[in-house]
Amino acid sequence: MDTTVDLDTFASLVERPDDAARRAAEERWLALDQPRGGLGQLEELGNWLASVQGATPVRAITAPKVLLFAGDHGIASLGVSKLPAEGGTARRVHAVLDGSAPVAKLARRFGAEVRVVDLAVDAPEAEFPEEVTRQRVRRGSGRIDLENAVSAAEAAQAFAIGMAIADEEAELGTDLVVLGDLGVGSTTVAAVLIGALCGTDAAAVCGRGSGIDDKVWMVKCAAVRDSLRRARPVLGDQLALLAATGGADFAAITGFLLQAAVRRLPVVLDGVVSAACALVAQRISFRAPEWWRAGSLTGEPALAKAYDRLTLTPLHDQKITMGEGVGALLALPLLQAASDALAEEAFVPSAPAAPREPAKLPTAAELLGQL
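Now predict its structure.
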């Protein structure tokens, strides 16, 4: 598929969330018969939900979706993860699909649907259902310390796929996306992107990932260092950066985040992978982070640097390091509670603010001309 992506369009298409709805939400909190600020952080979350929904009272979150982008990474062949480079990602995908993975169990508990998108898992396509593999770009990726992860055309294709997925979720009525990833070696790739975008050296962004020991950490740091040398020359071209030291899953997540902001679909980020893609997306559209919230901290040094650059404050810190969207999913009850508290008409005697008039929002197909 020959896809051309004009990144400059996002700067004008991504609008800020509705400030009038946010102010109306603040007034509703003040009208409650309770101590000022009595609901703590739930009040700020409710204000954010009002602004991204463009309406007060806030609509209760009724259709959340856990969206997991999956892909293998060639850098994993260096042994930078405790998980096996061969077959590790495929097993994690199977666990999510059969319902045994923690994210699947928690999603059932919180009433969220789970969707897995295979962009570059190194496994036969027939191993997964067609709805999982139908948007696969390639099988695996290059070793980013020595070669590009994907070609320029594959990066553009994956980016466009991510945009199209945002359109699909918006059309399906998804009202909040919990974003996650599945991929052995992905924290190494994320560290490279964050180190390059934040201007730091390898040691400052290299974390323990899957729980590696000191010896493996040194191997990982060397891999990040060598990959940073390849990333820095293409920092000015976000798609080239994703092709050189990202991968199909990273490009798709970046495209998804930007188009979700265009479609006014709020997203909760999970871990260092989604944060790395968010940093790339911020370079493309500075308003986009206003449509996202940070789920949790994981102990990864690169994640703290990314959230600081994005000016996002994590909603909790349960020291969850496994990825797969679990940390972000644990933030879902907080957002549901905030929406329920502010959506309840009986709390506020004054008339609610009128909802924002719906606008015609451009789809990925309209932006790209073709998919």
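The mean pLDDT is 91.
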